[in-house]
Amino acid sequence: MEQLTKREEEVMNKFWEKGEATVKEIIATYPEPRPSRTAISTFVKFLVDKGFLGHKPAGNNGFIYYPIIEREEYCGNNLKNVVQRYFNNSIRGVISTLVRDRKMSDDEVRELINQVIEGNRQE
């Protein structure tokens, strides 16, 4: 799965929140000053080309676009890439870093341990 740029991801998040939408409808979700139709259309084209969005005709209004890739799938893929690239494919390394840097509270660590134990019991 290809990585998205920050702006592509921003536009894709709009589709994940809205579902099916036209370019005009996506533009309307932005606060003023809104991005231009050309800018959003360009990002939508990139998202179609990368396989993130599909489209269908919408009469004289152009196309209705819809997500093909689910947010959870994209986020999971990104997380796998981070774990592989920065933590030598070690979940333990990720958790150790989060605990060491105090990004996880003691309660969150206990909850994670309980989830691991429960997951092992179900296998």
Overview of this structure, please?
By secondary structure, the chain is mainly α. It has two domains: 6-67, Winged helix-like DNA-binding domain superfamily/Winged helix DNA-binding domain (Arc Repressor Mutant, subunit A, Orthogonal Bundle), CATH 1.10.10.10; 71-120. The chain has helices spanning 6-18, 23-28, 37-49, 71-87, 91-100, 106-122, and strands at 53-57, 63-67. It has a two-stranded antiparallel ribbon. Helix 1 packs across helix 3. The longest helix has 17 residues, at 71-87. It starts with 5 loop residues before the first helix and ends with a helix. 13% of the residues are buried. The mean pLDDT is 90. One of its GO terms (molecular function) is DNA binding. Belongs to the BlaI transcriptional regulatory family. Keywords: DNA-binding, Transcription, Transcription regulation. It comes from Bacteroides muris.
